[in-house]
Amino acid sequence: MLGRARICIPGVPIYLIQRGNNWQACFFADEDYLAYLDWLREYGDKAGCDVHGYVLMTNHVHVLVSSYIVDGAGALMKALGQRYVQYVNRTYRRSGNLWEGRFRACLVQADTYLLACQRYIELNPIRAAMVAHPAEYRWSSYSANAQGGEYPLITPHPVYSALGHDASARQTAYRELFRHELDPGLVDEIRQATSGNYALGDARFGEQIGLMLGRRVVRGKAGRPTKAKVPDSHRLF
Predict the structure, then answer these.
(1) Which residue in 83, 6, 69 sits closest to 40, CA to CA?
(2) By C-alpha distance, which of 76, 107, 117, 79 is closest to 10?
(3) For 1-37, what is each residue's pLDDT tens digit?
(4) Edge-first strand listing for the sheet containing 49-56
(5) pTM given for the model
(6) Is 1 among the domain residues?
(7) In sequence order, which ranges of 70-137 are alpha helices (DSSP H)?
(8) SS3 of residue 150 by DSSP
């Protein structure tokens, strides 16, 4: 059965997840992570995408980007995925599928959800009990967003830039966000949006995106649709 069509609107941040086939590993050595990040930057530039956040886990990846051309995110993930599969198959003398197939994605309402989405991404190693603090995990954007340094891959989103008047102030404010855990309800929202390819935002955001795309981009209510009551004068006997 075909999945829901992916939604992509230029200028609207989009959160992407790509999983290893059958949850199998897709990174095996440091060189693999480094190669993937190099190509993420290369193909992001070619596809007109700014990368705001990422984490490379052992068997899946999370990336938050803003695309400025139609389906730029799709072009990025296709080119990156193919290049990386070729590299892995050649390096490890294997064949066959590496990725699960279709990547998962959701559009993100920037002003209210973007920073929460970045935190969700960069906290993945914590939830997986791999490290005690996101700064301890090498393969994420946390160091770029929270500690500074030279990270040409990352382009700050305007919402992040508004955290402070200079880089030091922004990094301090961003680190402060990690002193509190993400609300479990918010975590569920993010997971449901990416799993169903829905818009991640408030009701108005969902309505606006739905109107732009001409279709529903929010979860429907469970159960059968409620039937409209037919006035007695219009009933057929």
Answers:
(1) 83
(2) 107
(3) 334 455 678 889 999 999 999 889 999 999 999 999 9
(4) 49-56, 60-67, 13-19, 104-107
(5) 0.87
(6) no
(7) 72-91, 110-122, 124-127
(8) coil
Look at residue 130 and tell me if it is in a domain. yes
Is 227 a member of any domain? Answer: no
Does the residue 95 lie in any domain? Answer: yes
Alpha carbon distance 10, 71 (integer Å)? 8
CATH code for the domain in which residue 21 is found = 3.30.70.1290
Per the structure, the complete domain to which residue 132 belongs is given by: 13-215
3-state secondary structure 172-216: HHHHHHCCCCCCHHHHHHHHHHHHHCCCECCHHHHHHHHHHHCCC
Total structural domains within the chain: 1
Name 217's Cβ contacts closer than 8 Å, sequence gap at least 6: 7, 107, 198, 199, 206, 209, 210
Structure tokens at 33: 């992570």
104 neighbors 17 (Cβ within 8 angstroms): yes
In the block, which residue shows the tokens 């603090």? 133
pLDDT band of residue 218 (cuts 50, 70, 90) is confident
